[in-house]
């Protein structure tokens, strides 16, 4: 080692590019098994270039680090999950609150800047060599085999038996492999998020919580008729509020993402939850939304790809970190097997493909493979504007005691929902398409 970097041309068992959840999971898994591993990150520290809402699920991380919750920088234990359909000045709410989510915990809210540093630190403790503020500019090849990466450091070539590509949605190395094209605007969303400081006592009071309990709220509506979802998550002494909108719709509407977020903040039902808060952080991030049909080849001669770089995101349930960590673990396990055999070819790394195919990652993405086509084919103003408004108006009328009969109110509600979708036949077609889209 020289100057905290590395000796030129030094050879490692594996190089992991990207210290997000996928990359750190892979690095930890391999280093714990005794492999020599480099974990490379372009930010000045892990998490510096990353954001998420962010929910951290127990099962997938526990499979990597048992009882991680005893030391990981987690925010709140989520005991309630809500879905809000927003009208102009109203909300129709669905939700589930359950003490069983504590026995054991299902998930926690978290702040990526803290969590990523901790997770990468665990990989370092296991023996991985972390290199920060370093960009992998291209792959080094010998014939059809990847044998290392070239970096933006002077004399910065690194060599390894296998390279783990975990460099995010706009994967530079994925493009170099020819498996990662420039995503179409309808395959990615742009998410913007604010972290809003709020005293712990106010969070407990406003969300009906005790101790370390937490709530997540998914928001549908108030996105200017564009396909997108908002989110509001409780942290210890802050709120994470954000919204992700399809890039294709942002281009069509010529609306800036921050304008959508400001609209959500101004909604009376959201505004009261944020009252008195102070914005401490604002960030933006692309999120892969292509789903099942956008998943590239996952391995080849001397390389594997995982996490966002492999489009492994379940946008229907807003799950990404758990898929990323699982894919990173699977990649690491497959590489350990390849190391034992001394075979880093595509066939030698095929255990990664097999693990993904047999897991919830592949099964869930396959189940929702029709959602992308649904969002592409259906006017987003119907699903993300007119229908939420119609449902709110129907609820208002049904609960308003004004001398109009309940039978007439039911007819009014049905007319409003039909009008929102363009008539009875369109409503039936939308229902059928939606059912098909969520059932593979």
Automatic annotation (TrEMBL):
<feature type="domain" description="FixC-like C-terminal">
    <location>
        <begin position="383"/>
        <end position="438"/>
    </location>
</feature>
<dbReference type="InterPro" id="IPR036188">
    <property type="entry name" value="FAD/NAD-bd_sf"/>
</dbReference>
<comment type="similarity">
    <text>Belongs to the ETF-QO/FixC family.</text>
</comment>
<keyword id="KW-0560">Oxidoreductase</keyword>
<dbReference type="Pfam" id="PF12831">
    <property type="entry name" value="FAD_oxidored"/>
</dbReference>
<protein>
    <submittedName>
        <fullName>Nitrogen fixation protein FixC</fullName>
    </submittedName>
</protein>
<dbReference type="InterPro" id="IPR039651">
    <property type="entry name" value="FixC-like"/>
</dbReference>
<dbReference type="Pfam" id="PF26311">
    <property type="entry name" value="ETF-QO_FixC_C"/>
</dbReference>
<keyword id="KW-0285">Flavoprotein</keyword>
<dbReference type="GO" id="GO:0016491">
    <property type="term" value="F:oxidoreductase activity"/>
</dbReference>
<dbReference type="InterPro" id="IPR059103">
    <property type="entry name" value="FixC-like_C"/>
</dbReference>
<keyword id="KW-0274">FAD</keyword>
